[in-house]
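quick q for whoever's on today - can somebody do inverse folding on this one?? i tried earlier but teh output was garbage lol. tokens:
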């Protein structure tokens, strides 16, 4: 549809109608009223059609990329719980400390382990320069001892003694938060001046185009930019 041509025609109708209304007498004045009304209605109709087309294109674009929903933060426990309760195969998480996750779901993790769910946790390496930088970037007093918090949380996870859980410390830039439960993924970014749990979060299926680069990122960090952590290595790092 040639919107420019239609708008030009409607503009001419409005102009001509206005001239006839204020310059001529009846019956041309009445013609002017009709032309003016037609021009206004035509212009408004084009606007409505354009808005509808933009909305339709936006919906199609979201559908094409596979984005399902957007959440203002990562603190909705019940939302994560409903997916974890149904988890059967895998749980992959890349985060900073996973302190809140432990407090919310430490009792559920043994159950997932009994089901044979493979659990892979990537926590920020407390010995890394990236960890020291993140302390300052989040601009929060609770992050003043971020390195110690990571070590304490790591110890708590290890002490769960879960057969199917692997824990690694990563030392690359903490730019991505990734939370995969089977075929569903919550993902987002870390921002300067914002604590992780308060960051914008997106949701989609693992097979969607929008999730693919985040999954690739997790795999690369797991295989190339992280090291396994056990109780012995944890004790060594705290000395």
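ok took a stab at it. sequence:
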């Amino acid at each position: 549809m040639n919107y420019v041509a239609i708008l030009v025609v409607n503009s001419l109708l409005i102009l001509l109608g206005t001239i006839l209304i204020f310059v001529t007498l009846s019956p041309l004045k009445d013609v002017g009223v009709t032309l003016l009304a037609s021009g206004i209605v035509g212009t408004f109709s084009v606007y409505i059609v354009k808005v509808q087309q933009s909305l339709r294109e936006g919906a199609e674009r979201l559908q094409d990329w596979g984005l399902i929903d957007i959440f203002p933060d990562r603190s909705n426990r019940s939302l994560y719980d409903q997916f974890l309760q149904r988890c059967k195969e895998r749980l992959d998480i890349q985060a900073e400390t996973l302190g809140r996750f432990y407090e919310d779901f430490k009792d559920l993790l043994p159950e997932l382990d009994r089901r044979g769910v493979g659990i892979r946790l990537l926590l920020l390496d407390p010995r890394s320069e990236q960890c020291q930088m993140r302390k300052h970037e989040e601009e929060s007093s609770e992050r003043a001892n971020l390195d110690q918090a990571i070590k304490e949380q790591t110890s708590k996870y290890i002490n769960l003694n879960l057969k199917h859980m692997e824990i690694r410390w990563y030392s690359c830039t903490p730019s991505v938060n990734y939370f995969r439960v089977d075929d569903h993924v919550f993902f987002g970014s870390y921002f300067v001046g914002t604590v992780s749990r308060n960051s914008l979060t997106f949701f989609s299926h693992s097979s969607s185009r929008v999730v693919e680069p985040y999954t690739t990122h997790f795999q690369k960090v797991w295989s190339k930019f992280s090291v396994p952590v056990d109780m012995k290595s944890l004790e060594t790092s705290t000395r």
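fwiw Residues 86 and 181 are 9 Å apart (CA to CA). also The longest helix spans residues 28-65. so keep that in mind when u check it
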